[in-house]
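S.,

As promised, the flavin-adenine dinucleotide run. Input:
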Amino acid sequence: MAVETQMQDLTDEQRAICDMVRRFADEQIIPNAGRYDSEDVFPEPIVQQMKELGLFGVTIPEEYDGLGLDLTTYAMIVEQLSRGWISISGIVNTHFIGSYLLMKFGTEEQKRTYLPRMATGEIRAAFSLSEPECGSDVQAIKTTAKRVGDDYEISGQKMWVTNGLLSSLVFTLAKTDPAAEPRHTGMTCFICVKEPGASENPGLIVPPKIHKLGYKGVESTELVFDGYRTPADSILGGEQAGLGRGFSQMMDALELGRVNVAARGVGIAQRALELALRYSQQRKAFGKEIAQHQAIQFKLADMATQVDAARLLTLRAARLKDAGERSDIEAGMAKLFASEAGRYCVEESLRIHGGYGYSKEYEIERLYRDAPLLLIGEGTSEIQRMVIGRKLLQRHKI
Ligand SMILES: Cc1cc2nc3c(=O)[nH]c(=O)nc-3n(C[C@H](O)[C@H](O)[C@H](O)COP(=O)(O)OP(=O)(O)OC[C@H]3O[C@@H](n4cnc5c(N)ncnc54)[C@H](O)[C@@H]3O)c2cc1C
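Predicted complex:
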């Protein structure tokens, strides 16, 4: 059911790519997502096809074997993948953040070593800030990295690492100077290499995956570092440029990640709307299709308005970033609005489905369990409001 508002200002390339990924979602993701969700297994055949389509290298420059596309096009792709199933967009999300970190801050050697293999999806990346005792307050992390000879030794526990088991690279934030003031100056990002799929690596254990409400199929794990050795040149950007720079590097990547989560919110909201439009024209109550009751039409109208507003905010943030303009407020607004729009539309669609919405036979039940993640990852709604408020005051200081 094609109910997406037609965007007039897409390039021919963007239109062709969106059509291709939408078809892929309709034919390969949506018909299979329910099964992968109920079994909570990694959707390997879908991921293989994504590799063939080049979807792991969308934003990686052509000189490193990627497609070299911009963030705006990437956001459009993510919307389509998420419309299919947000776990699929989760599989590329941390990978995309990792490739951005390398492209923006990596040494030439780090780029040459990892980016071409990341572009094909041969190796995938995870991104690890959160710990058992802190997520929003990133500067409170306790994981440390100490210089030992030519290496650093990392010890500490990480939490909620998306792609934690199957990734080969983990961009890991650790404290190299726990006494530093301000705290962020003592934090460094390491490119930690591990065996994909191995729960035990020298100095690094990946415990069994965390069981979640939704967002199944893609694994979320803890990572237990205990004397994990990594060479000094695994510091993102090299030791000289990267030591003590980890916090600002990760925050920069998170700003981009917010556009990405916003696109996921648009995708899930769009799908919830499609399901509601279809069901409300099939179900009859009081002698007519429920879509003919004004109360249901109002719900559809509010959902469609939220979807369009979320999409426009997301594309504005992406386009500003692509143009090299400041987009911190806009990325925060897009993430805040689109993730809340995702939750809102999914709940309204579930209500329209009545009792059937509560049944696992209907797709909306999965969306209802998946949507809340977007309110949490890449900064909660409360944290987005803090960021937007703080930056607003900076921009409009009197
Ligand atoms: C499925 C899943 C996947 C994830 N993937 C990753 C990943 O790949 N990598 C990674 O590093 N992390 C990941 N996370 C972690 C995620 O980023 C954190 O859960 C999130 O940042 C919130 O941190 P927290 O859970 O510690 O909550 P807390 O920071 O403890 O917050 C708890 C509550 O307090 C509120 N709060 C906190 N501080 C303030 C404040 N100053 N003012 C007002 N309210 C406040 C929060 O908004 C929230 O409502 C993932 C989480 C989930 C659930």
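The beta strands are 125-128, 144-148, 151-162, 169-175, 187-193, 200-201, 204-205, 220-231, 284-285, 288-289. The chain has a mean pLDDT of 96.

- D.
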